[in-house]
Amino acid sequence: MNCIPLMINGLPGNVARIMAESACQDERFTLVPFSLTGEEITLGQVSVDQTKITLLKPSERENKIHEILESYPGCICVDYTHPTAVNDNAKFYVTHKIPFVMGTTGGDRQELERTVKNGSMPAVIAPNMAKQIVGLQAMLEYGANAFPGLFKGFTLQVKESHQQGKADTSGTAKALVACFNQLGTDFNLSDIEKIRDPKTQKENLGVPEEYIGGHGWHTYTLKAPDGSALFELTHNINGRQIYVAGTFDAVVFLKNQIDTNAFEQKLFTMIDVLTSGK
Amino acid sequence: MNCIPLMINGLPGNVARIMAESACQDERFTLVPFSLTGEEITLGQVSVDQTKITLLKPSERENKIHEILESYPGCICVDYTHPTAVNDNAKFYVTHKIPFVMGTTGGDRQELERTVKNGSMPAVIAPNMAKQIVGLQAMLEYGANAFPGLFKGFTLQVKESHQQGKADTSGTAKALVACFNQLGTDFNLSDIEKIRDPKTQKENLGVPEEYIGGHGWHTYTLKAPDGSALFELTHNINGRQIYVAGTFDAVVFLKNQIDTNAFEQKLFTMIDVLTSGK
């Protein structure tokens, strides 16, 4: 496969930086030395693995994009920017016919989908790039639809631990709780136990020191009230590597779509990326 | 609902006894005071919850069954006998037009299915009556078919603990390992860690004292080799209560089939019982 030119937007943000660093070391990709950023960012350039990346604010990007696309034909964008930028960025990509992977959460998701469907190029939109978690969630959704009430009478307990900076409750935990409730439990989202204290994470849960600042650990416990049965599901993610792998799979999926598809379908999710492996 | 006459076959065996005791206390059922047993059993009667149950050997049952069916019209049989009795018992039920739940494992399963299909009454055949485990297995089978290779590169570790008398490897563990391998792991069934030592069960796993003699605990651990992700699934069953509940659900399902169905389908599994809850 020829190298896919990859423009990673959202630098100097943390996730975009990890994606850019990983892209530099991945022979499937060529990192495009430009990145869309926010109007409020004062930096003009950042270095990623010895490559100088020029940051482009919204007010600057229209003037530059044609030159970029000429230098990097077949360029695919990866978006890890900010919820407030999601919809504008999507319109920018569609206007300039750039296929993209939207890894940023938030914004108006329905408008985002409309933008893609009204455009001419394919995009993968995924609030969670961790393939295995997406697959797990799909399995539980299947079970919840096929066997509603399977765990009727069971109690549910949910614990999730993330880096201290994450204020809101885990979106994955909320999605899975919805499945468990369809399976018969009676669990309130406000009863999800959020663990954000680094000391507790390290000493009680055993989160490795190096991942205290970036992890997503989840455990769901279903118990029969008479003590006759316990079911437990755990998914512990350390660092961002799993999101990098999923994002890059989505990029390769898009490239294959572009190479083979008549673009009847333009809007894709991680489920499409997963099932394409069949 | 009128009481369903329930004939529990396999007394004085342990599982049949638990089923019979539970049936006595369940207002949905009337326990029929007869039970098919093996030719080698020397007891003539057993007591279950103050009810005397007459044991019928294969050589005695043909002479008695008409009288039983006249006294208990609409009787449904539950079979927890012995692998060597599975096929003969099924033929006996079909010959006498008795709907049945086959909870006994082993025997010639293809012949068993043929027997039911060639008969005129419905039957539920289920090697595992624990509804939640059957449902869980269905979810994993769905995932394995939809997302083959999802856990490619992950290592799998499987531990299962059962009462000391269980010599073979857990059938559930083997079935789930097949799913995980389809999901991308490369795991050999012989690497399933079988725990049968009561001391280890109590001290290392924490199996409650009263369930050392009857439990089925399973844990499957998937790890990304770089330590970036861990997925773990546990299902711990204590005692037989979960099998009683599933078996009785299967009986009620059969009763509903008989009351409403034209018997186009005669052979059912626990998946049919589960989805009937929709």
Automatic annotation (TrEMBL), chains A, B:
Residues 137-274 form the Dihydrodipicolinate reductase C-terminal domain. Pathway: Amino-acid biosynthesis; L-lysine biosynthesis via DAP pathway; (S)-tetrahydrodipicolinate from L-aspartate: step 4/4. It comes from the Bacteria. Keywords: Amino-acid biosynthesis, Diaminopimelate biosynthesis, Lysine biosynthesis, NAD, NADP, Oxidoreductase. Gene3D superfamilies: Dihydrodipicolinate Reductase, domain 2 (3.30.360.10), NAD(P)-binding Rossmann-like Domain (3.40.50.720). InterPro entries: DapB_C, DapB_N, DHDPR_bac, Dihydrodipicolinate_Rdtase_pln, NAD(P)-bd_dom_sf. The keyword NAD applies. Residues 5-129 form the Dihydrodipicolinate reductase N-terminal domain. One of its GO terms (biological process) is diaminopimelate biosynthetic process. Its EC number is 1.17.1.8. It holds the Pfam family DapB_N. GO terms for molecular function: 4-hydroxy-tetrahydrodipicolinate reductase; NADPH binding. It catalyses: (S)-2,3,4,5-tetrahydrodipicolinate + NADP(+) + H2O = (2S,4S)-4-hydroxy-2,3,4,5-tetrahydrodipicolinate + NADPH + H(+); (S)-2,3,4,5-tetrahydrodipicolinate + NAD(+) + H2O = (2S,4S)-4-hydroxy-2,3,4,5-tetrahydrodipicolinate + NADH + H(+). NCBIfam families: dapB_plant. Belongs to the DapB family. This is 4-hydroxy-tetrahydrodipicolinate reductase. It comes from Desulfobacter hydrogenophilus.
